Amino acid sequence: MSGGAELERASILLVDDRSSNLAALESVLARPDYEIVLAESGEAALREVLHHDFAVVVLDVAMPRMNGFEVASLLRERELTRTVPIIFATASVYDMEHIYRAYDVGAVDCLRKPIDPHEMRSKVGVFVELYRQRRRSERQARELREAQAREQQLRLSRAEAALRESEALYQLTFEEAPVGIGQADPEGRWVRVNGRLCEILGRPRDELLATSLPDICDDGDADRIAASLDMLRSGEARIYAREHELRANRSLRTWITLTISALRDGDGTLVRFIAVLDDVTERRRLEVERGRLVAELREGIRARDDFLAIAAHELKTPLTPLTLVTESLLRKLEKRPEECSPPALAKQFSRLDESVGRIEKLVDALLDVSRISVGRLTLSLEEFDLAALVDKVVARLAAEREPSGSTVTVNAREPVVGCWDPFRMEQVVANLLSNALKYGSDKPVEVTLARAADRAKLEVRDHGIGIPEEAQQRIFERFERAASVQNYGGFGLGLWIVRSIVECHGGTVSVESRPGEGSAFSVNLPLRSAASRSLRGAAATQEG
Ligand code: ADP
After folding, report:
1. What is the reported pLDDT for 366?
2. Angle at which helices 386-400 and 422-439 pack, to 10 degrees?
3. DSSP string, 301-318
4. For ligand 1, mutation pick of 362, 408, 435 (most atoms within 8 Å of CB)
5. Is this model's pTM higher than 0.85 or not?
6. Collapsed DSSP state (helix, strand, coil) of residue 541
């Protein structure tokens, strides 16, 4: 200790067989920072050293039974007392020489009797100071060790806290990840799965943990995954990534992307398989939908191109006679006006009128196509007798057709009154009837109209070329035709327009036919159609 700091008390053992000597020594050494212990024999001294840590032992050499040297050698023998400094007190010069020869001077000193108090205090003081220094360095070493231990403990607990925090973060990330993550052991058995994985696979965690990674898929795919695990195990593959469809134990079909990689330790030993799963059902659905739309668009483009070719051809057919007749008329009027009598002109004009009529019809049909396609066909509903309308159409078409053509019979025993669009219904009857006349091979055509409960039933039957089975559905689609272009002109639009109008009225149209035997087209219409309907999927407003 230095400065004004309190000194550590030092114990001093005084050993002498004479109590008067002990008392004299004690009074010489007495100091508040010394604790003096007295022993009147070697045995008593040995007992004392067992209980005290002495800074120094002052040992009288000449004692009966056990002399000072014997005590000293016993002290040196014992581990605990081996280093205790000893000051021998003797009157013999021979003893002193012996002491300096026999002992290591650092731990032993000698005092000549009669004792010089000053020398005594100084020698004891040296050993006490040494003792205190030793104690100080021991304490400092202990404090240093303790500080180091505390520091180490602090670092350890900080590291543990950081580890706990990172473990918790890892846990949270694993569990809350927006994709399914699972770990499987080297045999492929699940050992850990997160919530999203259970959700995607639609299975509770416990149930899932009792299965293996390949079990997420059905047989074929399960085998494929098992084979990929083999390749990852052997190091042949580094990663497995594929889309799979899940069906097992599920009512809904789910598509997933599955990625598997192998986790190895520092020695390259396989520790875990890591599987990452994501639900891509919606994306797959959109892809399928997009594929369907692309196919539909392609088909639409093909149909439009076909249509343009046919439309050009069809428009050309009436335009050619129109041009020829007009040119010849002009020539006659210029060069031989005398030949242009009213009856002759009337004949030519009626041919012109016929061609213009055909062009008009074609243009009307084209207009209907565009109206129906964009859903802008409007219905003007009114109450009328369908039987009367059928008669009117039959009479009109009879007037237009060749006298040698088919006969048309109408079987309509009673009026069939309902609420429909008369103009559009006329189109329906006219299209069906003109088809029957066109494809009817000049054989009789029968039109039957009847009422059944709250519905009207119209049938147009012919005995002509008929329609092959495969075409019976598609001829109701836009631009679809079943007859050869060489023999029969046409846009392939009439039946599509019929179906659109009939469905817009809430009805249906169908055909029964055998090739070579004829066809029967049936229209089934509610007497009152629903207030407003969409036409071919698009909005059609209703008037009247
Ligand atoms: P278009 O007659 O202008 O070709 P439609 O839409 O009216 O167009 O008819 C589509 C196809 O249905 C026709 O090309 C024809 O092959 C077939 N079809 C329609 N009506 C009859 C019928 N009465 N007999 C035989 N085939 C018919």
Report:
1. 78
2. 40
3. HHHHHHHHHHHHHHHHHH
4. 435
5. no
6. coil
